[in-house]
Amino acid sequence: MLVSYKWLSEYLDLSKISAKELSDQMSLTGIEVEGVEVPQEGLKKIVVGEVKECIPHPDSDHLSICQVDIGEEGLSQIVCGAPNVKAGIKVIVALPGSRITGNQKIKKGKMRGEVSNGMICSLQELGYSDNVIPKAYSDGIYYMPEEAVNGSDVFPYLDMDDSIIELSITPNRADALSMRGVAYEVGAIYRQTPSFNDEVLEEDTTENAADYLEVEVADSKDAPAYQVRIIKDVKIAESPVWLQNRLMNEGIRPINNVVDVTNYILLLFGQPLHAFDYAKLASKKILVRRGKVDEELITLDGEMRKVSEENIVITNGEIPVALAGVMGGANSEITEGTTTVALEAALFNPLSIRRTSKQFNLRSESSSRFEKGINQVTFGEACDVAAAMIARLAGGTVVAGKSIGSEITPQEVSVSITLKRINQYLGTSLTSKVVDEIFAALGFDFKMEKETYVVSVPPRRWDIKIEADLIEEVARIFGYDNLPSTLPKGETVAGSLTTGQKNVREIKALLEGCGLSEAISYALTTEAKAAQFRMRESNLTRLQWPMSEERSVLRMNLISGLLDDTAYNVARKNSNVALYEIGRVFYQENDSLKHLPYEEQHLGIALSGNSQVKDWQTKETAFDFFSLKGMIEEIFEALGVSDKITYEATTEMKEMHPGRTALVKLNDQVIGFIGQVHPTIAKAYEISETYVAELNLHGMVEEQNDALVYENVSKFPAISRDIALLVNETVTNQELTETIWSNAGKFLKEVHLFDVYQGDNIEPGKKSMAYSLTFVNGEATLVDEEITKSMTKVEKALTEKYNVVIR
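Structure tokens predicted for Phenylalanine--tRNA ligase beta subunit:
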């Protein structure tokens, strides 16, 4: 919301309060000020000039040579390229040595051989945006008013010496989306009551609006209040300069005297209005209803809109003439030929307006106010003031009465609260005198009943409904900076981490020690990505009103987010990526909105590129399956569950490489997976060969681990024996090591695979695997007979179970 300091000063006495001081005070009382801008800042030596003579440039078909009166003794020659320059107009002149927008300095020079003493400026060259400049001057220079004095600064005539305060209005304070609302707020801060000098309505009692138009509302829930006033005999023209300046400073393009009044009232009251050309309605009826299937409307922006049953439309009884609360139709637009205006004022269903504006991607000042709420008390008053202004500025006559389709009676809200409760919440010792003054400053009527305030909240503050709202109002106006600072009271206890939190921190430390970086991805994603890499079947958890399709459902995996992060890095030439993320995934057992999703904490890892970069003494080494497997085994070891973990090859996950993927099991329960991303999926993400793993941390952390038993280092020597096996290539290392452990006896302390070979001298379908077995007896020295006996049992078991050949 942009607030004009000059405009605000018409309602309150701000003579002793600067715009900067005002903005600081408003920030302290709860409405954040984004900044204060004075449009003329950075501009200098820009004056009013009058073009006395204008002739074509002899060496150009688009330049003109102008003789301009800038308040000096002689005329100043300026070469101008604007198509609308002519003799007899007053213009904006940037003198030699002046500065225009962008800190650009204007110098005396020549254009095609002709001397130019400065520049005749457009509004764009003073810093105005293209979308706020009146259409008549959008492609040329701006004409100053006739009363402007030659040679004087242009800034006062354009209100560029005003201070524009930008407010950041939260949804609960929609009452401040109007100048009147801001005036009440500032009045409360400085203990003033705003005084509004609204236009007085005069009606022609010889006719009645009901004779011109019948208004019907099909469903009062869609439009709780709807009325139309008729202004006849209007003449469409440009608005006066003061009104154009006010709208441009508020970021709105002036159109004509009728449309500009509706926008002015929007800013003043926060009440959106719409003006129809009465003759173009082609009927004497307005019907407010829901749209019909395949019904179409061309809106004011020239776009064809196909409405639906979710949209509220304004019709002439038959066809739509406006999208209610969002945008008018081109078939009823105010144009130069308009002579009779039907002025609509309404309150529409906020949810329906929100859906319509989102459906058609039409966000406007009007729709945003309908969505957030409107002051029901000034609904009719805003329409009356607008009709009076149109009659004055367009020379029209207001027909007596209104055509009413629906009405609403605003109700004051009464909220009770005690002084004790206010002080208890705020930690203050406010007296009733102070609180009385605050309620009076806010314009709230109140009375005291047995030490309890009964406060009547006016409908203009529809955000106040409960006692907590009143406490906030007292705190705001008293001043947040005046509230006392206190330390917490009571006993304190030593804090500590839960077992799960400790384990998560340990996992993070381990992975970062392995060279990984933590990533934090969005929990919201697309339906397709949410369904990838799932560890279990689940329904999608959809948002009712997502910001975009890319953020429409809750994720069911971490890998898709990590692959997005990997692709982001690869696209920026960072091809060696090692990331991990610990976050929640969301499973939905039931599609009903009454059931919340089940949350599960997961660990995701993604490796792509090289783990070792080539330099003068080392070769580059790419990440592979075993790089990742080694990392997660470090985690299992740290959590004390490594002896309960098994791996099982799988081809069921379509997003993973069928020959390089395994399920991870804890006590025969699947807790995750590890492997290579399928090449087609990697191509879709535009990344190279990538290895990923995802584990259910909840399952690992909750596992009841065996207590650690510390042993003394054996005083007796360890003995190692190697064994080389020729086995079928389908036999896994896990199967062989399990067999070794179960048959080697109690003195076996370690099994280490140190060689795997396939190739020359090995028959097809076979592989050679070599293990080193370490035996230790903590109570005596082992002898060869014991070791030989253990090795014999191992060899026999391997031969019988897997038909191995001992090499």
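The mean pLDDT is 91.
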